[in-house]
Write a structure and sequence with these properties.
Strand order of the largest sheet of chain A: 2-3-7-6
Helix content of chain B: 40-55%
CATH topology of the largest domain in chain B: Butyryl-CoA Dehydrogenase, subunit A, domain 3
Largest sheet of chain B: 7 strands, mixed
Structural class of chain B: alpha+beta
Strand content of chain A: 5-15%
CATH architecture of the largest domain in chain B: Up-down Bundle
Number of strands of chain B: 9
CATH architecture of the largest domain in chain A: Up-down Bundle
Largest sheet of chain A: 4 strands, antiparallel
Number of helices of chain A: 11
CATH class of the largest domain in chain A: Mainly Alpha
Number of helices of chain B: 11
CATH class of the largest domain in chain B: Mainly Alpha
Number of strands of chain A: 7
Oligomer: heterotetramer
Number of domains of chain B: 3
Shape of chain A: globular
CATH topology of the largest domain in chain A: Butyryl-CoA Dehydrogenase, subunit A, domain 3
Order of helices and strands of chain B: HHHHHHEEEEEEEHEEHHHH
CATH superfamily of the largest domain in chain B: Butyryl-CoA Dehydrogenase, subunit A, domain 3
Structural class of chain A: alpha+beta
Chain lengths: 418, 373, 418, 373
């Protein structure tokens, strides 16, 4: 056994470090340390810097303008960016570069690649994801948004939800039902849809922490070209699942770094509040340390697998459970440490967060309370813990499925709006 | 032997629940909570004059109805269930302090106004970085002749930014702890509503700078008041837990995925069952604590039982409520996590109530002390 | 509110106390303090004493030789016996008196009552329960034991399991399938079967703690009279469920007393081991105290309901979950307190226990380890925690059932031996 | 970067697993464990001579194969999975003590016999009412000239009733703690097999009454040995956890109730999934601890990492194992609770291993100390 990175990865690490120290502003302490109004501007400018230095579409092959990095190099890059508290791109890049770009590279036509990839990379197009619907959450294949061909164009009607960064996007990839007479997984098509048209309306969803990180997208006779299909017509489920595979990417290997930074903050909080001598708090802090170490060890395992050519698989369901339940546990410990301070929490806010505050955020009671609130979503989005346990039970352990009540033509399912 | 509310009390609960559902649905709660005052003054007027809530437990001589503490516990449970934005709890606790620690003059002066709903009174015991306000008291009372002034900072004062009367704990020159009556318009008083975890209960910081005050009574051991507070919070949390479970169950019956109601999946069904198990235990504990508090209140004699039952009930109710509120969000899925959905209002209240006066772990530490462990 | 017992119950309590102080041997410290070989003899003699003083079939009406006690009086009796560490009868009495007797009184024919009740009371007949089968555990209605009428007698074939005290019994009440063409719940008959016949074989089952508390009962052409049916032929499910209703009885109201005695032992153990200053241990001990108090409070609620005439209902599922999960938690705390002492536990053994040691048992590491092992069964027997959660979810909360795959004639179910 | 066992190691694991499944199924384990010796001497002979297990990690000069500690960790995991009744773990730990603390004479004297499987050696560090055997040491060593005798009581000595060599911790006249070599046939030695929670690993009480002994080496800090022990126990527990999960999953697929395999119910399926989540994390931690231990062992230099990783891995593995063993019984239902079914053998091992050298809470307390909390 050997946990050292390959020499070329360490070479790359040095290059990344050099890049970061050259390009980040002097005294850089993370996005969280920037005044809130300067953040978006910095992020835009920083994205341009990344693009110029081939640090943006790190997972794409070079022929499409990407950095052509191996997974280990992607991990090294993610590690170094995380340690430096530097963003790896815009939020839309998660969808445009990480998901759609990789999907087009693998499943798109040459024409689609030529047409979309450069614009995604340049930032000319900002993408978001149109998967979930109000009635199709855990049961994603239950989508009801319809698309019908009309005069050489798809006409799309329906409602998408939980669309991250949708308000910043100008394009959306949409799962739409194109054949309601087929079984539910078989009549879905993956469509590329421009958003600057009257039939597309975006409304923000405010989350329970008070921030708008998600959107609803209403599609009313929205249109896109007949050829804007990735994969085959009615075979969009396959494309959709392939895309989600890219979502897994490198996170299992970098969870530990991000949560370690958070745990350092928590240790500091406990020390500041003078509670480290309490046996219960000590026990829980040591438990948190253990969980973050487990993430690190599992990350090393994942990296080892990827170095031997195995793509991330269903074991990512385990990673999801581990980090999302840990996120609730360590923020609940923060609440315990804060005690009554949590009731009227003071100090710097987070500005809205999906998982954890930006690097450089003050170790404030308010940042902890917001992180605590945000942690409730972790066991819901990107496949709830219940869905993950089904995957673990059925795919990894081979346990039998529940009796199915949703086979047969989609049209005939007696579905009910929730 | 009748360890249950009696028929009159059940009727009272039902009519109160209908009243709150009718007059103060959660949409109205949000509006009231977001207002500057943090509650709906019209609703409070109806709660006071029409239902007589703030005076229920107060002596008839002071305009009250002379019930024991069981009726207030019912009010706490039902307002906890409805998340009613009102100064009821603040006034209740303050009035209990006046009854317990106040001179007869102070009682005669303060209680009629509280009973009528005209005086908003509140306890100001917590200080920054102290949980229950009893330990680590830094606010001082300075006496010059008959005049007393207070200097210090109180926080988490419920309705502190609008209260007419604040009962402020402070250490006097004799080293003893007393509660002092401070008028809302007193000199040297700075009151600031705080950004709170719990959106439906306004809390304020109160700064006192040589602020005139009148002692409520003699040097006092405030621990029994904290026990009463824990008892009433337990009732409130039981109400909130029940509301969460109702919300989760209703959604689980209605929401379909995979062509089945999600409540037919054991992953959801069994979690709802666990919520009910937690609720049922917490309700029994809160009911017993209310009973013990009522016995002490009506007899005028502290029994030893409330000392252990109050922290116990608070801890049990806290854990039931945070469990149920968290799982309600999970059962509701994505929408459970949105601002517009009400689950987070309960989730916030659950965690705020749990932290108030000490987390479950802190309560159990008190309990262990009192059990002689 | 008022938690005082009614005056007549307190009168009765005084009578019970007087009885116990008169009849128990001098210096009585509980069964656990008797030498092991003297226990059975004492229990037999004690049972006779109970019968003589109308303290045995406490739930039966006086006309059938019972004590005709109200539920409150039954609770008082159970409380006082528990406090004194005195048994309330033999293990077979649980089945003969508590279950079958009450069932016969409510659903039996007059002839059955006359025939069986006196013998149950006198101890001439010792009953056990033939419900579960290897393939019918949580799914009790899936029983396969068959009974067919042949020459005026039922001929019974099958295998019963988890039969407590079966080795001490001479009669068994059996659920048997008499109509395999009916749906599974509809073709079952409740039969009374003598065991002193060649077709009945009892084999002990050794539990994981090493004691034999349960048995298998093999029925091979076992016979009983055509009239030995309680309830109607093919309608035994109703009888079976009524009988289980009697099982609920007074336990919810006496759980607290039994677990309080155990908690006193645990507190003593913690003090002896000098660990009460550890904040984690203190927290867990206080939690245990809280749970036992919750049992007491719920007992008061149950007693109040019964005083107003409400029989115990499905809320007993909540009691089952509470005590059985608590039993695992507090014995796990005992293991934590014992630490390495648990590895080779010393001192008095329990002699085998279903839930907790007999009163008077030494506060020994071995007694704790055995109680800890026994606690694993609590969440399985008498309806597993999973079954209880189904009941709570479906009956108390009204949540919808799972899709059923076992409707239609029993014969056609494609069942598989587990 | 290769944080995984290599192909040779995987092959070794597979062949060992096959060997144990073939030669020592659980029925044979029961027979061996119930025997007076507590293990199967023939099997041990095969494990020693045919597979060379006890000498794997020992230097070639002493008859070993000179591997690092990864292979022993594999053996611990596989024997933990199979619950093999053998003195492997006892001999492994004793040999690590000899390597670490022993003089070259002691090594030359003891290691060849251990490597060959001829010498059963074991650590005797735990005393009644002490957990890890390091603190509260009461056994004393008395020197007269070159002769040393030990007096005291040791307990939980694995295979202590049959071992040829016991390495006994004691305090000398200089106040320092050493390990001493005591022969199984020494005078003044009384050895009694104890009734144990874990049925598949015999433990004994060893009483020393002026028993002749030889110092293994100089005054020693035994904490690093405890860390190695924790590391190897973590590997053993991961194996046991995996066996439990296999058992539960196989049963859940096969057992039908309500005309469905019970594994199709989420109440069972999700619990099995949680077992895998726990196993997966524990396996990663145990693997890293083994890696860190191997690094220290092969380099001869203690790194600081094992100090935190060893208690961490022990705690994680303990909690995974007790969770999985408990739930396996629950999934199996009634039969899971019977003596004849094997689940309780794992359940007992899980709790015994967890208590040995300190419960998860005790391990995390050590971890917190070492993290400087």
């Amino acid at each position: 056994m050997d946990v050292d990175y390959p020499p070329q990865a360490e070479d790359f690490r040095r290059r990344v470090r050099a890049f970061l120290s050259e390009q980040l502003p002097a005294g850089w302490a993370g996005m969280g340390a920037l005044p809130e109004k300067e953040r978006e501007q910095f992020r835009e400018q920083w994205r341009r810097t990344l693009a110029e230095h081939q640090m943006l579409a790190v997972s794409w092959p070079k022929e499409y303008g990407g950095a052509g990095l191996s997974l280990v190099e992607q991990v090294v890059l993610a590690e170094e960016f995380a340690l430096a508290g530097a963003p790896q791109g815009s939020e839309n890049d998660t969808f445009g570069i990480g998901m759609l770009g990789n999907t087009l590279i693998h499943l798109g036509t040459e024409e689609q690649k030529q047409r979309y990839l450069p614009k995604i990379l340049s930032g000319e197009q900002r993408w978001c994801q149109g998967y979930s619907e109000p009635d199709a959450g855990s049961d994603l294949a239950g989508i009801r948004t319809s698309a019908v061909l009309d005069g050489g164009e798809w006409v799309i009607n329906g409602q998408k939800t939980w669309t991250s960064a949708g308000h910043l996007a100008d394009h959306i990839f949409v799962l739409a039902r194109t054949n309601p007479d087929a079984p539910k997984h078989r009549g879905i098509t993956f469509l590329l849809v421009p958003m600057d048209q009257p039939g597309v309306e975006v409304r923000p969803i405010r989350n329970m922490a008070g921030y708008s990180l998600f959107n609803e997208v209403f599609l009313t006779d929205a249109r896109t070209g007949a050829g804007e299909v990735v994969g085959a017509v009615d075979d969009g489920w396959r494309t959709a699942m392939a895309l989600l595979g890219f979502e897994r990417g490198v996170t299992a290997t970098t969870d530990a770094i991000r949560f370690r930074a958070e745990l350092d903050r928590l240790f500091a909080l406990a020390r500041e509040r003078g509670v480290t001598s309490d046996a219960r708090i000590r026990d829980r802090l040591a438990w948190c340390h253990s969980r973050v170490e487990v993430m690190r060890f599992r990350g090393l395992q994942a990296l080892t697998r990827s170095l031997s050519g195995q793509p991330p698989g269903p074991e990512s369901a385990i990673s999801k459970i581990i980090w999302s339940e840990y996120a609730q546990a360590y923020t609940e410990l923060a609440m315990e440490i804060l005690g009554a301070e949590a009731l009227a929490p003071t100090g710097q806010a987070t500005g809205g967060l999906l998982q954890m505050p930006e690097a450089g955020t003050e170790n404030s009671p308010l940042s902890w309370v917001e992180t605590f609130l945000a942690a409730r979503a972790g066991t819901i989005y990107a496949g709830s813990s219940q869905v993950q346990r089904n995957i673990i039970g059925e795919v990894l352990l081979g346990l039998p499925k529940e009796p199915r009540l949703d086979s047969g033509p989609f049209r005939e399912l007696t579905r009910k709006r929730g | 032997m009748h360890f249950a509310y009696d028929t009159d009390q059940d009727d009272f609960r039902s009519s109160l629940r209908r009243f709150l559902a009718d007059k103060a649905p959660l949409s109205a709660v949000r509006t009231a909570a977001e207002s500057e005052r943090g509650y709906d003054a019209d609703l409070w007027k109806q709660m006071s004059t029409q239902l007589g809530l703030p005076g229920l437990h107060l002596p008839e001589e002071h305009g009250g109805s002379g019930t024991g503490l069981l009726e207030p516990a019912i009010v706490m449970e039902e307002t906890g269930r409805a998340l009613t934005a009102s100064p009821y709890a603040a006034c209740l606790l303050a009035s209990l302090a006046v009854l317990r620690y106040g001179t007869s003059e102070a009682q005669a002066e303060l209680l009629p106004g509280i009973a009528a709903g005209d005086t908003i009174a509140t306890l100001a015991m917590t200080e920054p970085a102290s949980a229950a306000g009893v330990a680590g008291l830094r606010t001082t009372a300075l006496s010059r002749g008959d005049d007393v002034t207070l200097t210090g900072v109180k926080t988490l004062v419920e309705h502190g930014h609008t209260a007419d009367v604040l009962l402020v704990s402070a250490t006097g020159g004799d080293g003893g702890t007393r509660l002092y009556v401070v008028r809302g318009d007193a000199a040297g008083l700075t009151r600031t509503r705080l950004q709170a975890l719990d959106l439906t209960r306004p809390v304020a910081e109160v700064r006192l700078d040589a602020t005139p005050a009148v002692p409520l009574g003699e040097v006092a051991d405030l621990a029994p008041l904290v026990d009463l507070w824990c008892t009433l919070l337990a009732a409130e949390m039981v109400g909130g837990t029940a509301a969460c479970l109702d919300m989760a169950v209703a959604y689980a019956k209605d929401r379909h995925q995979f062509n089945r109601p999600i409540g037919s999946f054991q992953a959801v069904k069994h979690r709802c069952a666990e919520m009910l198990v937690a609720l049922d235990g917490a309700r029994a504990a809160a009911q017993y604590a209310a009973f013990a508090a009522d016995q002490a209140f009506t007899s005028g004699q502290d029994g030893p039982e409330l000392e252990t039952v109050a922290p116990l009930a608070k801890a049990e109710a806290s854990e039931a409520y945070t469990f149920a509120a968290g799982w309600t969000i999970q059962v509701l899925g994505g929408i459970g996590f949105t601002w517009e959905q009400d689950a987070h209002l309960y989730f916030r209240r659950a965690w705020a109530d749990s932290a108030l006066l000490g987390t479950p772990a802190a309560q159990r530490a008190r309990l262990a002390d009192r059990l002689g462990l």
